[in-house]
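Quick sanity check, V-type proton ATPase subunit a:
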Amino acid sequence: MLLGKPLYLIYSRKRHFDVTKNAEDVNQEISLKFEKSTKSETVVKDESETLSDVFIIQVISTMEYALGTISHTASYLRLWALSLAHSELSEVLWSRLLCLGLRFPGYWGGIALFITFLIWSFFTLTILVVMEGLSAFLHTLRLHWVEFMSKFYTGRGYRFEPFSFKEILEHKEKDDEDEEDDKQDDEK
C-alpha cells in the first residue's frame, strides 16, 4: 500500500520515457539537443515533485488505514465487552437469585421459587432488553459513524444550517412576495 502506487508510477514513466526516446529520429535529437535537454530537466523536476507528492499522499493514506484498523478493532472490542457483561450478569442472576429459590424444601420451596422466578425474570428481561438494545445501538452507531465515515465520507456537501421556523417563514414570505410581483408583471 505504501510503495505500490509510487513504484508503479516510476515504472510507467520510465517505460514511457524509453519508448519515446527510441521512437525519436536521430536527426531530430541532434538538431534539438539543447532544447531537449532544457525541456527534459524541467520535466524530470516536475515528475520528481509529483512523485514526492504521491509518496506523501501514500504515507498519509497508509497511516490513516492503520489507525482506522486499530479504531475498528477497538470498536468491535467494545461490543464484545458489552456482550460479555450481559452474559456475566445473566450468570450472576441465575446463580445468586434463582438458585436461591431452589434451596427451600417442600411447600415453602414452591412459593420461594415462584417469588424468586418473578424477580429473576424481571431482572433478566430488563437486563436483556437494555443490554441488547444498547449493544444494537452501539453496533449501528459504529457501522454508521466509524466505518461509513472513514471509508466514504469526504465532507464536500452542503453547509449545515440548523432547522429554524423563522427562516422558513421568511423564505415563504419572500416567495409569496415574488409570486405577487410576477402576477402583477403578467397583468401589465
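Posting the structure with no commentary besides this: The longest helix spans residues 33-101.
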